[in-house]
Amino acid sequence: MTAGEADSDITRLLRESAGGDAAARDRVMAMLYDELRRRARFQRHLHGRAQTLNTTALVHEAFLRLGGGAQPQWQDRIHFLRVAARVMRNVLVDHARRRTAAKRGGGVPDVPYEDGEWLPELKDGEVLAIHEALERLEALDERQARVVELRYFVGLEVAETAEVLGVSAATVKRDWTLARAWLQRDIERHS
Amino acid sequence: MTQQALPEWERIRRTFEEAESLPSEERTAFLDRACPGQPGLRAEVESLLAAHERVTGQDLLASPFAAPSAAEEREFEAARIGTVVGSYRLCEVVGRGGMGLVHRAEHVDPRMTQRVAVKCLRRDFRPDDLRRFREEQRILARLEHPNIARLLDAGVAEDGMPFLILEYVDGMPLTEYARAHGLTTSQRIELFETVCAAVQAAHESLIVHRDLKPSNILVGRDGRPRLLDFGIAKLLEEGSGEPAALTRTGQHVLTPEYASPEQYRGETASTRSDVYSLGVVLYELLSGRRPHDLAGLTAAQAERVVCEETPRPPRAAGTGRELADDLVLITMTALSKDGARRYASVAQLAEDLRRHRGGLPILARPDTLTYRTGKFVARNRGAIAAAALVALALVAGVVATARQAAQTERRFEQVRALANTLLVDIQDEIRDQPGMTTFRRKLVERATAHLDGLSGDTRDDPALRAELAAAYEKLGELEGDPQFASLGNLAGAIARYRHADSLRALLLAEAPADPARRRARASTSARLAMALSWNGDNDSAMVLAGRALAELAALSRALPGDPVLRAHSARVRSELGWYRIWAGQAEPGMEDTRVAAAALDSLLARSPDELELSLARADCAIYRSDGLKFAARYANVVEELEPQIARLERLGRDHPLHVRLHRKRLGCLKQLGEALEWLDPPRALRTYEEAIRVSREQVLVDGDNFSTRRNLASSYSHLGGLLLDQRRYEPALVALSEASEAQRWLFEQDAQNHSDGSNLATSLMWMGQASAKLSRHERAIELAAAAVRVRESMLARLTGDAANLGNLSSARGALGEAYRGRAEDPRTARQQAGADRARAAAEYRAAIEGWERLEKEGRRMEFWASSIANCRRGLAAVESRTR
Fold first, then answer.
1. Tens digit of pLDDT for each residue in A176-185?
2. Which of A59, A56, A54, A70 has the alpha carbon at shortest distance from A32?
3. Of residues A24, A158, A122, the one with CA closest to residue A80
4. What ipTM goes with this model?
5. Domain housing B828
6. What is the least distance, in Å, from the CA of B114 to any CA of chain A?
7. In this structure, is residue B626 part of a structural domain?
8. CA B599 – CA B124 distance, rounded (Å)
């Protein structure tokens, strides 16, 4: 696949995934994952270490690169951020699971360690606990789960989260307050 | 829906949210009320509230991806130093903006000693930032000015980040430079004028900077100021896609201390926003402090202060001494909350500073009598000026008691002399002074009422009747002669001139050979002819002007060498030619103007740049241009006008406040622009912009004057029409809304004036068309409907007017188009689209019916042919969809 094909691909895939096409979304997520990893390693190369990761910038850079020279459309960016939140969540959870498995002596991790090198230092337990609690919240209140995903896994601000979800900032703030309380209680109950 | 009927989670959510919003001590009472007999709900909410208390202040869900700290950001920046971008190695960071980062950089080849600045995006840029970055590149590529930091190169670095290579300015911010070098006020102003020139150059390239502040104005070691950072600048002609989004973004990145009220309010920033920011810079430069202290204020508080509070007038830096009044006024004018009250352009601001330094009267002076009189006396230390002042003082007192005064012959003569002084001497002296219109009206009204009263007793006094004729003539001039600063009442002017003309006719009949009376009659007739022609009656105008010309020719034969008489003849001849041109007698009309032009040129050769001769010659060129335009000889129009414009510009420098001179220049510029529309549209655009500048200046100094307002409106309307033709809808809308604003004002002042209403309706219709092109359907419909309303309101008075009827049809057709535009937009709901099609069809039909009626009466004009065809096409399209 040439770069040009990739460019037109991402736009088409984004639209299809926004329209509910699961296969298209998987493709976007795969592309995004690769791109995020590349970009993050570059950041790390400049930084020297990966204490924090500016995901917002990362995601936007990835978006611009995947979008190629084309002027990114606003709608595409919103879809992209939604997908990106999912990707980041998967990446972090997978990574935390692998490391936890390795620590528990569950054998050699099936990906080279350096692959997680670009991720910030996280408390693996916390990431997994949040992820699992979030799955339960999702069943109860889908939008609150999206709010948490965008704010926690991509690091979006309230206003940006509101924009991506197409709701008011006040709604995001209210959702965030209740979701945090709910997740706190849920994590306590399950630990 | 009651709480009971809601799904369980919804009830929990709502109850939690409401309880959480209350102070904790009120929550128990609230839950008692909210959950009667629902212990399950209550327990759930209470447990969540408890969890909420526990989690508050903890870092659960504190994103690991929060924006990096400032220290980390610096570290990142530090890591870039030494890397190579293009052919340049990055050195230290020299500037940080909302979206960009600027490094000093050196060429990788050590033999290349030029130092440059490399601008790149910040690491956490947004897609909007990237767009603005590219916009900046495009903008800088258009700008070539010694006081604007140049763009040397641009490209994309290895990591995909775009960068700009800019001229590196080794200097300090404007205000700091002034302080460090201990510049005097005068030096500061001079430096600031250079900055104005750079901003003006940007504006002339249709670029608004939008972020002017001292740190973006660096003064190099060579003392030359340079404008930097066009990062949030905007191309005026661009942005049809997303102007609102751009404004939103602009709002995020505004610099609180320097942003204009309209930028705070999120409105579109214009060149006048830059005028405001320059005003802040000037304030700071002169006084060492900023107009508003915004330290520690929230955004909302800052907005309130900037939008509502009038800053204290600036005082001189350091010393705390008073600044010159004019400087204070210039600064405060630039800082007006209301954009329309600011300088219309940066050039005007600079001009006023220049005038201040040169001791000339400034444009920003409010229309106060004392100031005008003060400057007037200062420049004309003659007897007339003193007489004017004395007369002014006496108007209230002596003239008010005129009736008693008239009882004795001696007093009668005194009062009469005073009235004449007021009327003739002073009126003539201030005729071309700006800002005098209201004053002149009072003056002339009082003096005329007074002479009227006197004339009752002395019908047989020819000298008094001559004075009365002169008085009526002055009154006509003031009331509505479009040639002079007037109050806009053309019908009134014609009545006054008629009165004067009949008095002159009587006087002449008493002494047919008296050269003074012959000359006076010719002059009055010529004036009446001009007013009639403006009112559309060219036939009467030709008769009157022809007779006046014959009289003047006979007098010339008696006094062959008299240059005043020759000039007068030439002027009347050129006017006669103009009436003929408009009456369809092109050939004799052009011949008249040619002869007149030759006569005036030969007079001007003897007394070069004599003011009245120059004005008459310019008029003649304007008249000739009409004839040439009707014959589509546009290149000849340009040839005709260019030397006149050059002369008037030259004269304008010596007579900065001469109203008639600047209006004449404006008339030439508009004629020139119309011709250039056919030859060189970009130059036509620049010409109209110049016309707007001149007319804004005139409105600024003489806002009471209807003629100046009308000129401003028509300059904008010309520009708007041209932009519309060029399909530059966004800027067309800006120009046309300026035009319609002024036209609405004029129409409101005098609803009798047909042409103001007609011009307003046309502007509204054009704005509707531009909005429709931009898919702003609601606005388009609103505007076209407003145009229809204005035309309809005029219908009541102008039932028989073919032009208005036909133009009403045009407006209806435009309204039909606007409805059709919305119906055809795929975003419009189907039901709405159906209703819109029906409305469109009704408007189209009404329009076509109107034209058909005119046609039946034999009054159809070719002019509307294309509009009729458009309406028919639109109607067919709408009907085919309805079926």
1. 999 989 988 9
2. A59
3. A24
4. 0.77
5. 727-882
6. 27
7. no
8. 72
